[in-house]
Design goal:
Helix 6 packs across helix 7. The chain is an alpha/beta fold. It contains 8 helices and 7 strands; from the N terminus they run βαβαβαβαβαβααβα. Helix 1 links the parallel strand 1 and strand 2 (36-44). The longest helix is centred in the C-terminal third of the chain and has 19 residues, at 212-230. A 7-stranded mixed sheet has the order 3-2-1-4-6-5-7, with helices on both faces. It starts with a strand and ends with a helix. It has a single domain (5-230), classed as Alpha-Beta Complex (Spore Coat Polysaccharide Biosynthesis Protein SpsA, Chain A), CATH 3.90.550.
Length: 232
């Protein structure tokens, strides 16, 4: 049996009460699955106690490393910092707000046997009808603009091989980065599949993903990638 060495990235912002239970659950869930495991918490300049909790987790668990941004740099920047600090051949990514369940990584890792990147697809959207409609419209635009089949590029749980990140590192520091990673991988010829994932309401903290500033950056980054891919 092939040994599994996994780096798991948690971007964390306003997650003082979320990141601890998520890390503990991840350690418990993956203990018997991974031969080597490292968890990288990227604390993205959060003004609450997220950084303090991340450091405490790193002090208690040798598998955990806490990396800090001095100021908030964005979801994509946290993803890229996490990737830069990974040492394992397989990389997983999951938001640090506890909306996703590390149990779903088991199926995604199984699917990675015949794929290069596994993208989550939410079974149920837990954040209200307005956000559901926005998500569906966003993914419809993605499929239309980039001619891809993916159903839920806004789903923030993914597993991929290190070479995908090395060849398809996204440029944006904002929320489009995770989608751009998948799109770049698809256009580069990597095998990309989707897997069902559970998603739960955020229990604590706040999300800024749909703030006007982030939406504006999202549209700009989509337009930039569209132009770049067309010119290749």
């Amino acid at each position: 049996m092939t040994e599994l060495a996994l780096s798991l990235i948690f971007p964390a912002y306003y997650d003082e009460n979320n990141i601890g239970p998520l890390v503990e659950r991840s350690l418990e869930t993956l203990a018997g699955l991974c031969d080597e495991l490292e968890i990288i918490i990227v604390e993205d300049g959060s003004p609450d106690g997220t950084g303090r909790v991340a450091d405490s987790l790193a002090a208690r668990h040798h598998e955990v490393t806490a990396v800090h941004h001095e100021k908030n740099r964005g979801h994509g920047a946290a993803l890229k910092t996490g990737i830069a600090n990974c040492s394992k051949p397989i990389i997983a990514f999951m938001d640090g707000d506890g909306q996703y369940d590390p149990v779903d990584l088991r199926l995604m890792l199984d699917l990675l046997e015949d794929a290069d990147l596994v993208q989550g697809r939410r079974r149920v959207y837990p954040n209200g009808m307005k956000r559901l409609l926005i998500s569906r419209f966003y993914n419809l635009c993605i499929r239309s603009i980039f001619s891809v089949p993916f159903k839920d590029l806004g789903c923030s749980i993914k597993v991929f091989r290190r070479e995908v990140a090395q060849k398809c590192m996204p440029e944006p520091d904002g929320i489009f980065a995770q989608g751009e990673l998948v799109l770049r991988a698809h256009y580069a010829g990597f095998r990309v599949v989707e897997a069902p994932a559970n998603c739960y309401p955020r229990k604590s903290g706040r999300s800024s993903s749909m703030s006007p500033g982030n939406v504006q950056l999202l549209l700009r980054d989509m337009s930039r990638l569209r132009s770049k891919l067309r010119n290749q």
